Amino acid sequence: MSCENSSCSASNGEPTATRSAAPMWIIVAALVILFVGGYYFDQHSGWFDPKVYAPYASGEKLSAYQPQSGEAAALAKGKAVYESVCGICHGSDGLGKPGQAPALAGSEWVVAKGFNRLAHIPLAGVNGPIQVAGKDWNMAMAAMGAALPDDSLAAVLTYIRGSWGNKASAVSADDIKKIRASMGGASVPCSCDQLKAMPE
Amino acid sequence: MNPTENKTFCASEIDASCRVPLLALFGGAALWLVAGLALGTAAVMTFHKPDMFADCPFLTFGRAQAAANDLLLYGFAMPAALGVMLWIFSRLSQSPLALPIVPVAAAHLWHLGVLIGTVAILTGESTGQTWLEYPRVAAVLLFAAFLLIAITAVATFGLRKARELFPSHWFLFAALLWFPWIYSTANLLLPFNHLPRGVVQPIIGWWFANNLIFVWLTLVGVGVAFYFLPKISGRPLTGYGYALFGFLTLVFFGSWVGIPQSAPVPAWLPTVSSVAAALAILPVLALALVVKKSACGAGVSCKGGPFCFIKFGMLGFVVSSVLYVSEFCPRYARVLDFTWFNFGVTQWQLLGFATMIFCGAIYEILPRVMEKDLPFPKLAKVSFFLLASGVLLYVLPLIIGGVEQGMKLHHANVPFAEASAVALKFLRISTTGQLLILLGALCLLLNIFVMTIHWKIGLLKQLIAAVTAPLESTEVKL
After folding, report:
1. Are residues A36 and A126 in the same domain?
2. What is the predicted ipTM?
3. A10, part of any domain
């Protein structure tokens, strides 16, 4: 059955579309969103790392929160203890604070070859005049480290001996244990002269 | 030259070829729409009168709500979309439907699948995956029926005379490929085999839901709207470039959206999703501009007619898509996740966009394929106002209530129970909207139903007339 006569309307009333190109602005907008989206992806995706979940955004950030071992672990622990126990006076930059506590960065007491004298300072405290990096101090520091466990104190000392440009050897928990034992429980603050009388 | 190649067909011939398949698809669809809306209303009664269906396990919230959603999508939106698609394809090809018997069989398979699926959900045999609740038998039926209709559509597409494609072709053709791809993938990976374990399962589920509700519905809804806007207004579709750009960006970027920001999955998944969501604004914008250029100032006074449906549906498309995309903006997601907001947006996409477009299309097509006016043209207009006001009354409170609920959830001093109770007063308004939508759907059902009855009676009369007609010997020519 075809449509020969005009008694039925041929189906030619179908809609048409006038051809035209996509306007430039929307393509530019697409590129801008792609660019911003790419930046957002870089900042938040962890680059397809299957271990990275929100709210963390990258493998590095995540590993900063992971438990560590070895030297890095000791340093991280030392930093944490230092910041909660010593940093209030000596500053988290180790530069000390005027009228409050001398610097640890560049202090001859801290970077001495041995750490026997150094360990006595937080274990027993210091009292009276003391010269630190060419500056005279005459104050007192209580036995701030006496209550710390051996490994924490060792970690703090390792940290201050190895940070802010200081480069001295690490201190182990066993070393602290020995020094503590040699003090025989005495915790009377030392004077500068008493410290100097001890072996380095 | 082959004479059939030049054959031109009357519009009425083309329409008549679609009559039986379309009646089968639309009739069942309208029935499922009413059933889905009724079930959805029954489901929310849990919040108004918790003990109302306490002794009736079929109507517990978890079952009724899932069955209702599936009925709106698989029961109504899909067969309606497929029917409209078949008609558009044969109209655009200017040729009667190829293989007209296939879609009739497919329609029955489809409706059987929906029936089995719905009964399974209500009796507690759901698979438990969102949008994939139907058990294996029903899923296979739906898949097979879709393929059959797709084959018919493609065959009809192949009969077209003009080689040049109309924008609706791209959208509808893509939709024909999209659904079998996502539905088979999701079904094979999730309810059929449970191959991936653990966190991969919800990822597939989110991917599927996004591709179904956002990408697929947009493809068909916009494809149908792009046909009817110029058709009814009698002007060519303007903004071809925007349409092409919108189509390509939707297909490229739209399918990456879907992983919620709060999902307990590696950070790159939600991050990719939110970047894709930002990009998915582009197709929404581009398609909205095409509609604006083609519909505004067309001088068509719609007064509740099909043009109104299509315009309202496209407005719903733009607003619901923007809200949908905002769910994937980390800043808003923090507040909106786990509230009524996302539910409201999905309902808007289903009812305010897809349902409106398909209802409008059905009202436009039915009188043509039946060669008869609607039995209740006034009811058809009333149903527009019922549906439109119902949709707004239904979804807006859910969305506003969702935001308020989210703010309360995030307030450290507000107890959880209080944050949930906030939504109640909004739910009361929204249920009123649901009832209006239900009334509107009943108008549609009534029109289709009465039309079908008239047609069947007509057929019967013809048959009787043919049987009882005296056979004149002169008429018998050999």
Report:
1. no
2. 0.83
3. no
